Amino acid sequence: MKVTALLPDKLMEEVKRYSGGKNTTEGLTIALNQWLSLKKLHHLNQKIQKKPLEFNHQFSAQEAREINRR
Length: 70
Hints:
By secondary structure, the chain is mainly α. It has one domain. It is built from 3 helices and no strands. The mean pLDDT is 93.
């Protein structure tokens, strides 16, 4: 997608430096993907906070390991 955006030069310099991108497009792509990943984790954490995971009464870590090793 082609986008025209007015962004501060200092912000773009930092994005390029910290993302390690070869150019502006790659730097923005890396930065936006990382930002999106963080937002998804934040959303998941909020969901788990509201309704924590519960293990079955009969859960056994040892049995789970044995099943996974098959």
